[in-house]
Design a protein that fits this description.
There is one protein chain. By secondary structure, the chain is an all-alpha fold. Helix 11 (172-186) runs antiparallel to helix 12 (192-208). The model has no long low-confidence stretch (mean pLDDT 86). It has 14 helices and no strands.
Amino acid sequence: NMAMSNPVFGIASKWWRRMSLWDWRTAGLLCFCVMLRWLLVWNGGQFWFPDERRFWWSGEVVHCLVIGFWKQSLLPIVQLNQHPGFTFLGCVPVAIHWGWKHLAGISYRVMPFYETARFATAVFSLTSVLSIALVREIVHRAGGNHVEARLAMALMAASSTMLYYSRHVLPYDSSMALALTSLAVGIKGNGLRRLLFSGWLAGAAFMTYYGYWAMVIVVSGAVVMWKADGVKGALRRLGWFGIGALFWLAVFILASAV
């Protein structure tokens, strides 16, 4: 047996079998979507919308944490913001970019914040690609076949709205990705932990962008009523889903009290 005598061949053979199961049409479309978005980001355009100025608050949070003022770091999130979840999410690419530059010997204090915004935009642009992939998964879990799933994904990818905002540091795509993830998780099964996690994601979607409240309601209703065993079953699902969603309200109240 060649795989037994040659471990490298055995590993390669195992990966080849796994790759043969991939949907290469889906992978190709998603890779094209990523390259298209990063091309837009590279050409600039950040801070064209006035709302993009809110991303500065993510920099303020990380700056306060760096200098040791952790209580002040909560201020932009709980008091100065309409979309606190996005400010919190924005801290991740800010911290990564500043840490990366620090390893290269460049202090964030002397670096234009526009560079950090461009890096964060490249990261957040992937959330719209994630939404495209999630639509395919949701169609599958709802009972659709491969053709229907690919068609739904292609229509989502062709949406100009899904592409237009990917070059800007705005909360829309991130909130939508969280909402669609909540739906994908919630309709997969009836486990309590799954319902809690689905509600947790729906709450995160709302906190990331309040303007998508209608989407969050639709997602919540779909998850709660999905294969519910009558009114009692729907109420049970609503209870566990609601506990997960209200987690973020509890966190926000506690943070405001600090």
